[in-house]
Amino acid sequence: MIQAQAQLKFPSALAKNLRAKILSPSKDPLRATRDRFVWDLFYVPHQYHHWRSSLIEHWDGAEAAQALQALGNIARERFGCQNISQPWVSLYQDGHYQRLHTDPKHGPYAFVLSLTPRSASFLGGETAIAQESLVYGISDATKPFEHRNHFKRYHSRIGDLLVFDGALPHEVLPVTGTKGLEDARLSLHGWFTSPEVMMQGRATNKRLQKDLESYVQEFGSCLEEIGARSGYVCIEINRKRTAVLSSTLRSQNFSLLSEKRISACFPRQSIQGFGDWIRIPLQL
Ligand SMILES: [Fe+2]
Question: Which DSSP state fits 255?
Answer without folding.
Answer: P
